[in-house]
Known about the structure:
The chain is an alpha/beta fold. The chain has a single domain (4-305, 385-485), classed as Amidase signature (AS) enzymes, CATH 3.90.1300. It is built from 16 helices and eleven strands. α2 runs antiparallel to α3 (51-63) and α8 (248-255) crosses α16 (467-485). The radius of gyration is 21 Å and the shape is globular. This is Glutamyl-tRNA(Gln) amidotransferase subunit A. GO terms for molecular function: ATP binding; glutaminyl-tRNA synthase (glutamine-hydrolyzing) activity.
Amino acid sequence: MSDLTRLPAAELATLLADGEVSSVEATRAHLDRIRAVDGAVNAFLHVNEAATDRAAAIDARRAAGESLPELAGVPLAVKDVLVTTDMPSTSGSRILEGYMSPYDATVVAKARAAGLVPIGKTNMDEFAMGSSTEHSAYGPTRNPWDLERIPGGSGGGSAAAVAAFEAPLALGSDTGGSIRQPAHVTGTVGVKPTYGGVSRYGAIALASSLDQIGPVSRTVLDAGLLHDVIAGHDPHDATSLRHEWPSFAEAAREGSTGEVLKGLKVGLVKELHGFSQGVDESFRSAVATLEAAGAEVVEVSAPHFEYATAAYYLILPAEASSNLARFDSVRFGMRADVAGTVEDVMAATREAGLGPEVKRRIILGTYALSAGYYDAYYGRAQKVRTLIQRDFERAFADVDVIATPSAPTTAFKLGEKLDDPLAMYANDLATIPANLAGVPGISIPSGLAADDGLPVGIQFLAPAQEDARLYRVGAALEALLIDDWGGPLVAPELNGVSR
Length: 499
């Protein structure tokens, strides 16, 4: 039998259901893969060696004739922003080193109920603040395509784990592109659902009006299968939508026939600029494939998109400043061993426990919310947010989906932008508008850049609650591109380990 770590989740699930493979075998194969390559990649902060016990329990239930959900027995990686009862939850920060949660995040609980097997917690930029996973307190994650390059951020660990065949599926969070931008640079699939479509309960909050949990995978169908598991209303999350969601996996299966592209109206945003030549060429080639399959490509105007990054980097730090106030050395997390008042201990704890990027954004956010500056900065940024939402409304009155490159460049080298925060922030110029508006987005591989041979992603955006449309379109283009390529994109050998 072929290497179990190379199988898409859907294929692995079929083998498990048919009894050709056990969950223990699949889980051990992925744990072995992690042992073999993660020393080089650093995608995982914690590996769940007890995962085989859960896998054995799934196998026993299946052997007893119990009808199990489709993904039962499939291994799953979990971004460390999501709390878990059986593994530490650090959000990539020293201030939460070793923290054990008394409860599971809702999406983790749903994954367990569906029979998925969590095999570890993945690395991330500290408190999800970053675009390269270089801001983790536990060292950077490296891109499986080139170990000297970044895997994107803040969810680079989840994307790298999937790209390196350490896990077939992963959970991520997307506040301004933290699922889609890593997917772009690692040749994987990443989805940001409609805001409120997936519970945020148990996700360590960065910016509560922007954060959204979503799937990471190697195929559109696999993402849809995991999205089906985690979607739905949660009474623990006040922002959770009361909405009946269709099956996203079925939408992907429908789209893979390609019929959905005939007559599809695809919008290209004329004001969106700043992409490298390799990224732009790959994007234009994918758009030409859509047109050849019957899609109509038109230009749309979104004049306020150019202000999205500036508005985002006022709204996000302001909300982060508020959310991270809970790390005060009193309630939970680390406490500096110093004498003095509560304020002294708090200051020493936050100085020792928080990294420079987190401190930078807390300071920015506190300033933007301070007396005399609230209206000038935070208030005006929220007005820009409303204008961006209106841009989307007007565009979607004329087109079914919007297409953009998922990020401005391919994976840059580790350390290349660490000393230039503005250059780092610009990595999210194409993904941020969706978070500000609450609309869903998907990034799928569009090919390899001609200039450096690294992965490029194409992003599709749809109106709020039309996530299924993204799966249909994404799966349709994926099928056409894979036919052209002769198979899925696969990274070169990693650290001498053949895949």
